[in-house]
Every structure is written in structure tokens, then in C-alpha cells.
Amino acid sequence: MRIGLAGVGRIGAGHAETLRGLAEVEEVVVADADPGRAREVAAKLGAVSVDAVDALFTAGLDGLVVATPTAAHADLVIRAVDAGLPVFVEKPVAADLDATVRTLAAVRHAGVPVQVGFQRRFDPGHVAARDAVRSGRLGWVHTVRSCTLDPAPPPDEYIPTSGGLFRDCSVHDFDAVRFVTGRDVAEVSAAGANRGSAVFAASDDVATGSAVLTLDDGTLAVVSATRYNAAGYDVRLEVLGSLDGVVAGLDDRTPLSPASGGFRPAGPPHTRFQERFADAYEAELRAFAAMVASGGPSPCPPEESLEAFYVAEACEIARRERRAVTIDEVRG
């Protein structure tokens, strides 16, 4: 099959390399707002480059991967499904809630499958945690704890357009909580703090945040995020039940140092999300290629992305207004 890739920046270049390594993908066609960068990536990987993203739609593709900046996601998804092309799109589907809803309406009308890039759904630890919940061996779940702790902030110029910590970063945790538990979020409370660069406060954002989610069966989920975890990149999810508990993301590279002896990671900590989720990124693109080949359903449809976006929006309101917010309130 012939797969197009729009955007070869930090994530897109990694996707190009993964796609080029899939046996079922015969050719990868890349495009970027910077044609020179597209040519450079294509030359390195033995892929094909075109000089503009628009040219992808006349390149005889079987599917399209969208890894452009967020502002371009919705338009490219809609153009692709209108052309009958299955799409893989990095989160978020669109820059805001209204645009997300409009994009989903277009996807439903076209009837073309779209997969959203929530890679934790393909992480072996998160999948195993979900299996443990589904099997019943944990008993009834009472607490979930999920964290995304970045070792350092992104570039200052990214922060004003990021959407904020809950939408940009914790949205992965919100989706993971829903994926692992199989439950919806009913209500949230959230708080944030700034003790780092002034750019966060200037952008009405926070560098550290925490949210408490009440799920629809009464389970409590605690989500934590920060841009300043110098120990290393740390993503873990714990599920605690009446009979047992499990944790995803605890291994030889987890950046934890015991205060008084005991377990100590044997390897160097992860420094980037690409390292921590290398297997998951490959698995999600394998799933996309299988979806394109079979015409089957999406393993992560945009409706799931919308639910996580609702939770992120509710957390942002809760942080700003210092009150509990129901998901129904955000849905309107």
C-alpha cells in the first residue's frame, strides 16, 4: 500500500521511519510546510517527497497520516475522508471543542475510518492493566493514578498555542484512564501551579497540574502532570482494586529513587516520550496499516478523542473557576 504523511517534524519524522519499516507499506510519500525538510527525510529513508501537503491528495494514496501542527489537523482529516482516504491523525483531532465536533460530523457523514494517535492504548503495560481490570482479578476498582511527568518544558514559543497542560499533556492520561477502566468520567476537580518559567503564567497556563476524576461507577482517578521532572520522563498508571493492584510503566528505566534503599532502576531514565513509547508508536501504526488494508473499524476512533477532550475542557474550567465540573456541563 501507499501511505502519505503530512508533517515531518518531531513526531512525523518518527512516523515516517516506522511506516517505512512496515512490510505491508510499499511506499511512503511525505510532505511538509518546509519542502526541504520533507526532501531530507525522504532521502534518508528511501521515501518519496512532494513539495506541498496539497500534493498528497493527488498522489494515489491508500491512507494518510497527519502529523502537522494542530491547527491543520481538522482540515486535513476532513479533506482526506471526503476523498475516501482512511486517516491516522495525531491528537488532538482539532484545535478546540467546536472544531472537534464539526470534524466528527464530517467523518461520520463520509463513513471513512479515522484513527487518533493515543499511543498509550498500544503500550504493553496499559494493555495489560486493561486486561487485568476486564478479567476481574483486581476485584472492584476503587482508585486509578496516572501521571505524565516531562523532564523539561517544551520551547517557550510552543506554550501559548499548546492549549494548556490539561489539553496538551494530561489528555493522554484522561484517555488512558477511560481505556483501562472501560468507564466514562462523570465529574472533575483540578488545580494548577507555576514555579517555573514565566511563559506559563503569561499564557494563562500552568506548569504543574493535578486533577481528580470521578468515574461513572464511583471510581476515583488522580491525574498528575508537570513540565519539570528533571529525574526523567515518567509515565505510569496504577490501578488499585479490592483484590489486587497493578502498575503500568514501572520498569528498569522508571526515574524513581527510593528515599531509604530498596528498588532502584537499573537502566538510565527515559528522556523523551519517543523512547518510552517506541513499541506503542510502532504498534499503533501497524494497527493503522491493518485498518487501511482491511477496511475495518478504527482501533481508536475520534469519538474516543472527543470524550478525552471533554475531560480536558472540564479540568481547565475547574482549574480556572476553582470548582467541580461535570462532563455533562461541558457537553452542553
Automatic annotation (TrEMBL):
Task: Please give the InterPro entries that the UniProt record associates with this protein.
Answer: Gfo/Idh/MocA-like_OxRdtase_N, GFO_IDH_MocA-like_dom, NAD(P)-bd_dom_sf
Keyword Oxidoreductase included in the entry's annotation: yes
All residue ranges annotated as the Gfo/Idh/MocA-like oxidoreductase N-terminal domain in the record: 1-118
Highest taxon of the lineage: Bacteria
Coiled coil regions in record: none
Single GO MF annotation: oxidoreductase activity
Q: Where is the GFO/IDH/MocA-like oxidoreductase domain?
A: 127-242
Q: Which Pfam families did the record assign?
A: GFO_IDH_MocA, GFO_IDH_MocA_C3
Alphabetized UniProt keyword annotations: Oxidoreductase
Family statement drawn from the similarity comment of this UniProt entry? Belongs to the Gfo/Idh/MocA family.
> What protein name does the entry list?
Dehydrogenase
Name the source organism. Actinomadura syzygii
